[in-house]
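As promised in the previous annual report, we have extended the structural survey to additional targets. Below is the entry for Subtilisin-like protease SBT2.4.
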Amino acid sequence: MASTATILVSWRHVVVLFLPMILILGLAAEEPAIYLVLMEGDPVAFHQGSSPDHLHGKKLDPDSEAFKAHAKHLVDSHDQLLQATLEVGSYRKLYSFKHIVNGFAVHTSPSQAKKLKMTPGVKLVEKDRGAQLMTTYTPEFLSLPERVWTQEGGERNAGEGIVIGVVDTGIDPTHPSFAYDPLNPFTTKPSRFKGACETGPHFPESACNGKIISARYFSAGAQTTAPLNASIDFLSPTDAVGHGSHVASIAAGNFGVPVVVNGFFYGRASGMAPRARIAVYKAIFPSVGTLADVVCAIDQAVLDGVDVLVLSVGPDDPPEDTLTFLNVFDIFMLFARRAGVFVVQAAGNKGPSPSTVVSYSPWAMGVAACTTDRSFPGTLVLGDGRRIGGVGLSGPSFGGGIFLYKLVLAKDAMKANRTFPMTPEYIEECQHPEAFDRTVVQGRIVICTFSAGFANATSTITAIIDTARVLGLAGFVFVANPDYGDFVAQPLPFSVPGIVIPKIADTQILLDYYQRTTKRDQCGLVTEFGGNAAIREGRIASYQGRAPIVSLFSSRGPDIVDKSGNLTDVLKPDILAPGDLVWAAWSPVSALDPILTGYNFALLSGTSMSTPHVGGIAALIKQSNPSWTPDMIASAISTTASKNDNQGKPILAQGPDINGLYPSTPFDFGPGLINPARALDPGLVFPSGFEDYIGFLCSLPNIDPATVKAATGVSCNHSLAKPSDLNLPSITISALVRYQSVQRSVKNVASKTETYLCSVRPPKGVLVHINPPLFTIAPQGTQDLEIGISVVQALKTFSFGEIVLTGNLDHIVRIPLSVFPVSTSL
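The corresponding structure token record, generated without further manual editing, is:
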């Protein structure tokens, strides 16, 4: 499989370097597939309809006789149902889910799956849709060291006692980001945590060293779906991809780990919560990823007792035949939230098109990605003194970028005796060293061009580097092609001097210079290469950019309720965090990314990277406020977010024109950039719980209460008046006709009584009234708010505003408003 982190993927006239992704191929109509089945009856955590003990400060004891007895009962009931319903030999049960959801995963044929759907006691049957993968500076960018870690006792204590669960590709246990420091032992043991250490290839028992508090792997779905490659698909928690290690180190990697790549020191990396423990749940393998493995990992993580669950993996498309909120993956997240776990989920990498978020549900915090003000600029110096900007983590050409070398266009350096195909990958893309005349290119800088191979994802930067190394090039320049347009280039590490020039305008300057200085005969063959150039140092960071900027790839709202694209009254994404050019740990195996093989660190971009930033910060908030529930943490993060960039101006977004920036909206960044220091002390929070989420589901338009009961096991006894009445720290109305009253309730989590003044910046086309406009609230007190929104002008799209609650003790609570005013009359 070609690596998407080392190739350029064409998207009309835009090309984006994405993080690693695993694609799951669909199966033929009657070929067996994995089906996820939910059953009636309470799982262990919610047996007899009671709330889980750990919502009251206790943890269910998995070693208790009652726990074991009910768990065995559920497993037996799954086996009995399968035996009674399906033909002998027609199925294989992969997992029994029994902690937060009662159900199982089974490998069987579509016709047998239909039998399950008709069986009494079966609530839901869903075909497995597969699952895929969605720093040295970001702690400083988010002001963690001086404004947050100091409140927790410094980096030696930030996150102490908190367990972050990471469902991903595993972890590299030998990486220094996850090492145990005997000179700085952990002072708090999470006694509630009951994880275990599963061993296997490259993962001995000693790998669980205290920093890695437990590690498990889930492979039944993967082993059923595709043949595994023993050389990379290790049946252990070991990470052969790198993605899981990257995510885990962003959330909770050790403090101050030196980042060295190709002998160059880039700085020191630290996780957001460097003293938090890491619980590893490997559910994605290099060859395949299944939803069955992922949801089983979620079930186990909640049973083990994690405080925070980081999901930079999951389905990449909405479910085919059910509401986005009621697919199996989201149901598992709902019950994880019910069990007291803060769940953070990648928003997706399908931006900048609207309604591309894959985090749909209000009970999971969906994270968008943004840039920081750090960049790694490269420079190509031409013989006439002009400089062309580009990217590439590359050292300079020999001589420190001062000496000039002959420039050679790839197609002008082909062997005279051509025995190879005259295709772009040979004559333009520098993929095959055997196509070149060594005497022409050795010791020179060769110009390689983006062409069909890169557009079709078959050509790679890795191959260009190999060509440069084999032929002894002084360096390479990889340039844009007018036939394909500009592209976005990520600065990958180059082991030879090189630079990527992604803009057509800059490429044209280079090619004009090359043609002007190159002499040719009447047949067009080169008789003298007269152009010269040098590649300057490209590994030195610059900190002069405007930031944050919403990243091009980051998925956008508005949120959808079904695959048809019908909108729902939930703001997505939920928050913005750094996800562009993030240094973090990497596995040197790097099974999917040859360009990163052998490296212990990687510079990656994606919402997979922004998500663990929020997970680690949630751990810090939990450490500071141990009694807070997940919804209180989510509310604190949301209402304290920053809407302005480092220039004090509204946050901008990268859009369809990759060379331009555009005004952003809450559908790009939610309430704004996460502000950890303010989130520790938000003043007010918007509490909501499991019953509120059920009421939300029951209030959806045209919803059948039986559908909610089938998916969740809970009846629609307390529906909300409207979906927009769910007590979220935002208000979204996707079709406002004349007038709507929205209810909200806030709780004072500060230590003092405070008086708040309510003010409004109304969205265009509507008027907003708040009752009461002024209120005083005591510590732990609550206040109900009624927000009346009326249409004064119908529009053809959403408009945006906000409610601001300003306290006399300096707390400021911001509530984004996203309203589509449809009509002034009923």
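Residues 271 and 776 are 39 Å apart (CA to CA). The first strand starts at residue 9 and ends at 11. These points will be discussed at the next consortium meeting with the crystallography subgroup.
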